Amino acid sequence: MGRGKIEIKRIENNTNRQVTFCKRRNGLLKKAYELSVLCDVEVALIVFSSRGRVYEYANNNIRSTIERYKKSTSDSSNAYTTQEINAQFYQQESKKMHHQIQMLQNSNRHLLGEGLGSLNVKELKQLETRLERGIARIRAKKHEMILAETEFLHKRELQLEQENAYLRAQILERERLQQFSMMPAGQDYNIQSYFTSNALQLNMMETTSVYDPVSDKPALNLG
């Protein structure tokens, strides 16, 4: 079976694009070598990858070949000026960017279920698979966030219970202190009166006369 035709457009998958680049680059370098040998022509090939790496082949000195090319194009009356070349380059880049933007907009519309009339059955199945995978990832993330929030709320509940128990203990302690400070209001006065009367009795007992055998007179014990 022969190889099927490949649509010539930018490959969106990075891995596939890199593999295709390596294969076709090697094939291009091989073709340049074969052309230079079979036809005895001067060939210079320069390729810049999307990552900025340069690949080149020349059967002669590549700088001399470039200088020969510059001289040939400068002598031509139809040669483009630098400004025209830059303008064409930016125009091509603008078209590429516009095409990419259009593709992204169409992809977003398809994800929203719009503009599906231009898709065939295979493309619709691919879109359905993408949506199912996306929904699965969204649900997994939602469940992860719910579990994390539940765990946080449980820890917060335990913390609030501990704080509530601590506050209750503080309130009970203050109520006991308040009751103790309020209950002795009358009792404290009685106790103080009791101790005052006892102190007076003790003082009177201490100031009673004590017989002094020397002076034959009662002596006062002044403490």
Automatic annotation (TrEMBL):
SUPFAM superfamilies: SRF-like. Keywords: Activator, Coiled coil, DNA-binding, Nucleus, Transcription, Transcription regulation. It comes from the Eukaryota. It holds the Pfam family SRF-TF. InterPro entries: MADS-box/MEF2_TF, MEF2-like_N, TF_Kbox, TF_MADSbox, TF_MADSbox_sf. Residues 1-61 form the MADS-box domain. One of its GO terms (cellular component) is nucleus. Residues 87-177 form the K-box domain. GO terms for biological process: positive regulation of transcription by RNA polymerase II; post-embryonic development; reproductive structure development. One of its GO terms (molecular function) is DNA-binding transcription factor activity. It is found in: Nucleus. PROSITE patterns: K_BOX, MADS_BOX_1, MADS_BOX_2. Residues 121-175 form a coiled coil. PANTHER family: SERUM RESPONSE FACTOR HOMOLOG. Probable transcription factor involved in regulating genes that determines stamen and carpel development in wild-type flowers. This is Floral homeotic protein AGAMOUS. The lineage of its organism: Eukaryota, Viridiplantae, Streptophyta, Embryophyta, Tracheophyta.
